[in-house]
Amino acid sequence: MSEGRDSMKMLIQGQLEDAQGADVIRVANPATGDAVDTVPKGTREDARRAIDAAADAFKVWSEKPSIERSRVLLKTAELVRASVEDLGATLTMEQGKPLGEAKGEISSFANTCEYYAGLIGRERGAHNPFSTGEGFFIVTKRPLGVVGAILPWNFPVSLMGWKVAPGLAAGNTFVVKPASTTPITDIKVGSLMVKAGLTPGAVNVVTGPGAVVGEELLDNPKVAKIAFTGETGTGKRIMEGSAKSIKRLTLELGGSDPMIVCDDADIELAVEGAAWGRFRNCGQSCTSVKRLFLFESIAEQFVKMFAEKVRTIRIGNGMEKSTHMGPVHTAEQREKVESMVEDAENRGAKELVRGGRPAGNELSHGNFLSPVVLTGVDYDSKIAKEECFGPALPIFVVKDLDEALERANDTLYGLGSSVWTKDLEKAYHAAERIQAGTTWVNSPPIARAEVPFGGFKQSGFGRELGLEGLDHYYETKSIQVLEYSKGKKWAFPIN
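^ that's the sequence the OP posted. Answer follows.
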């Protein structure tokens, strides 16, 4: 791709369009610092045009027969799969993750579309008689209307799918605001949805700052719901802004996910799970393993094997086949991770695996940061208390499961978690007591379309994926029908 004003545009009412102003946003490759492309710097007026387009499209899309909505989602999945090479390469260049991970994310978007295409038309309401025998009531589901989808930069495509697939299945329409650092693949995917037969304006993609485009989504009364994935601080701001018009909300926010390895766990499997769970996407996932708790009896063995495994991770440009881990997404994000590591070391932590900025000319222009594994970490360290969004992992040693659970729950967050044990009773005991929306047993964090996903505490509320994810894009409507021959007559005074 080349930098240029005409290379990428916003998607509004099924057409690729420029913004009202001439300003653009430069999208940089985090592995090289080079420009990938530019996108328009959208204004409030651009956001309003997209919202109006979505509102008009809602009148058409929401009334389409369920089989037609299903066909559009299935065709979207087909077109996205056929474009996986181009979309994957684009995603790697703008986000930084290895090409294999990027293509997996593209496939995940297609999977989500297929899953919800299969659910359309299978929803069931309720028809029940009144207990008094005077008639009956019906419970139906109706789409909300226009949804503002505000996306993060770490998984910009798959998380777009988590929102638009169930929302479109339910009959809603969308204005998507991608992260300003990763908008290009989302625009391409949106264009493929139009090609698949989506009503023009049913999905719009508006690029621009959150303080401009995002604020219009919050302020505009035509937007019925905000679906947001991102940091907790921004989620709080969205809650505040949405209160003005009582918008529906789904918030998937930060996490500080614990991984508990019991003394009877398959150590080799757990080592692999911890390495993948922490360093996939350079540790930039809401459900990355962010705190590792080891039982005393297996800690020494695990730490030795884990250190050896982490040292084999190859860092580099995501377009290189040999790369296991790409760069941190931005220079600012890298500095945040480095600051957390420094804080932990100032409190006595030691680097079991030494991190830092790797040497080499091919890595000097990117935001690369080597994996760092810390032991002897103070529980009051920032890396233990806050969300670390990057390739750094603190290890803690605990006496038993009770201590592990107490430490695991000592956080403001409650998104994901995992427990590793061969004892089913122990696994169930832990899963029931960990304060998190998801607990994986003997598995690293892997989200699947069929399984509802969301958080406890300050990790947000509402659910995406699964049947629960679909339900968050409906309003519940009750219809009460009286049989007048059996009913009472109403008159004043009431006797």
